[in-house]
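To: structure desk
From: M.T.
Subject: fold request, one chain
Message: Could you run this one when you get a chance? Sequence is below, nothing fancy, just the single chain.
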Amino acid sequence: MREMRLEEVVEVNPEVLGAGTPSSLNFRYIDLSAVSRGTISWHQLDIHKRSTAPSRAQRRVRRGDCLFGTVRPLQQSHGYIDKNVDLLVASTGFAVLRAKPGIANSRFIYHWMLSSSALTQSDALAVGSSYPAVNESDVSKFRIVLPSLVEQQRIAEILDTLDAQIKSSQLLVEKVTLLQDGVIESIFSEISPNGCIGELLTGTPKNGIYKPSSDYADSGTPIIRIDRIQRGEIQSQETLPRVKLSKSEEVQFALQADDILINRVNSIDYVGKSALIRDLQETTVFESNMMRCRVNRNVAIPKFVATWLGTSHAMRHFRSSAKSAIAQASVNQRDIRACPVPIADLNRQGDVIRIVDGIRAQKHLRELELKKLQLLKQGLMDDLLSGRVRTPEAEAVLEDL
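Reply: Done. Structure tokens follow.
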């Protein structure tokens, strides 16, 4: 293995659309927004005419080329051209890396782009605070550990195999998610709404706390923001942002297990999205564009209410009740309390939750399997590309999967 400069193993931006390119030329354009962490969303690509194309449409690419996103390098907007398309042009936000024949394997270069080594180097050389970017000359001078061409191919095949397994695992998660959604919708289609959410709550829904960005810090009280609510759950609780609060603010806006948060201000497609609060490791609050609801356990199970709020029936209510403003919509306390809900006896609610929990357990298991594969791939990729692990050892790991 030899450590080399990237420009020694690839051509950087080998083809551009020159001044003599006909203005009538049509091409498919790859913008930065269509590429994320190794994946190109081909369905997002638009066809442009040279005369009316974005000014950044300059890099001619071909099958086997690697796209290294130079803007906001921590986002890893990198991709690989694996299709034969008549004419493809990429944004100048990419450095196009074309493997030199007889020296580098294009799939090896692709995996290297997503490695910790490439990420660390690009982050270190990025300039600009609000729009950090790496320039083309710095990309050319990145350091890469290059094994023999045969070894590069073996490494690429191992990592491609893991990628295929990860994709299969992702499809299984998606299937279980669709099953979960279908079962929930089916169950609630058989239970007609016969009351309103307000009848199941203790007190009224409460707005969260507003704090300016200057009050956010590395220490303080964890705060849940709307971007953490996904499919009825709070994502990554261990990495919630923190905010400086007084003791009285903590007490006033603290969350409890089984509270329900409902997004009161968002775009029309997302207003009303909600999440159930599960066990909290420390005092946690919520931001002002959400409302906190507490369920009266004598008449309803919080998980039952939260599950209902995630159905299309409840979301239709919020969308029809929302008041529109510029690029946003909002619901108020009255809208939330008026949301129709099936009020079933506690035993029936418990039956529903047991069915849904069974499917959620399957989904959680699939998600754990996916996470395991992703961590394995990241670890093996860094070890293989750095030479810490040789291909026979990695192939033995794959056989054990």
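Reply (cont.): The chain has ten helices and 27 strands. Let me know if you need anything else for the meeting.
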